[in-house]
Amino acid sequence: MILALIKLEPIDLGWALGLMAIAIGLSIQQQLDLTWSLALATGRTLLQLMVMGYLLSFIFAWQNPWAILAIVISMLTIASIEARNRIDKKIPHLFQWLWGSIFVSTVLILSYITLLILQPERWYEPQYLIPLAGIVMGNAMNGAAIAGERLVKALHANRLEIETHLSLGATPAQAIATHRRTAIRAGLIPTINAMMVVGLVQLPGIITGQLLSGVNPLDAASYQILIMFMLALATLITTLLVAEGIFRQFLITAAATHPALRPENAIQPC
Length: 270
Prior knowledge:
globular
């Protein structure tokens, strides 16, 4: 027998705050210097999710496609800013490239899911569009940040090696190919690891939320399978595009100091 969701009252959330109070107390006792970070994270979690809860309640009731798209675009912009901050704020046009990369992967994935699998009555059904877009963009953001940070560090740390390859006749794409592949693999590792242990070591948030809300376990598992496959492809597409953008920017900034990287000599990357 599957029971209905137990509604949490304000007093229940107050007791939930006790969990973070214990965490902060342990941090103080162990001298971890995480007191402020934990307190800030607690406050932001509470504020952001409560605001989002009220906002989504209004959006779900309104059913306006423009309002739904505005929510999705806002989430996309925030994800792009966060990814840029984790990679390198100094790289020109990185935000625009991240925004475009996450946008492309999200649109492709959601179009595939909407047209071929879920087929809701309206493509902008907020019950599906907002949560699926959010989880895709969140995972794509993490993959892009990991891959981008790894590639930027590799390009800076191995500049002499790259220039040596160029001097020996390698194309720019060939000179950084190893670092590019390593960065993309790094961006995909968290998603692949999660797929390896899903259902065995952990139950992801989506299936847990559905189980708590009273959804049949097999239905919840089916949705989780769909989501894991979505995340794998979305992360791969995003990391590929972000690596391409960083590569192009590397060519532009390095062209002034190395003749082989000048636009007239550069060969398009693979």
